[in-house]
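Sequence design from tokenized structure. All designs in this work follow the same two-part layout: the structure record, then the generated sequence. An example of the structure record is given first.
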């Protein structure tokens, strides 16, 4: 049974950092291309990161370029999202699906 559990979100001040985790079960993350998406209230879901099965990382969208990185720990079957220099516009629920499976997401709130 495929399951994805996102964690690591929270409330952080502008300029702060968070590391999100996406722990998978029922499949091996290193054999799939894994992506992070986010969805802010009233906005469409936005793709923000991808790492291929071979470990290659896709260029980030302009909205997060230079601030967010994606990585993977094969031993822990987990994908990470390091987010630095967080801004209020980064406030959203973050997901790491393996289509068609989605987890509950983790809420990131950037506010002073």
């Amino acid at each position: 049974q495929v399951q994805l559990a996102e964690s690591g979100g929270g409330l952080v001040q502008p300029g702060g950092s968070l590391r999100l985790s996406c722990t998978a079960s029922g499949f091996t993350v290193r054999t799939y291309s894994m992506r992070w998406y986010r969805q802010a209230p009233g906005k469409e879901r936005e793709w923000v990161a991808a790492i291929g099965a071979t470990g290659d990382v896709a260029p980030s969208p302009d909205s997060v370029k230079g601030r967010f990185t994606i990585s993977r720990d094969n031993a822990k079957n987990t994908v990470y999202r390091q987010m630095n220099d967080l801004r209020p516009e980064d406030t959203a629920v973050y997901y790491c699906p393996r289509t068609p499976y989605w987890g509950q997401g983790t809420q990131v709130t950037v506010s002073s």
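The longest strand covers residues 18-25. We note this feature because it recurs in several other targets discussed in the main text.
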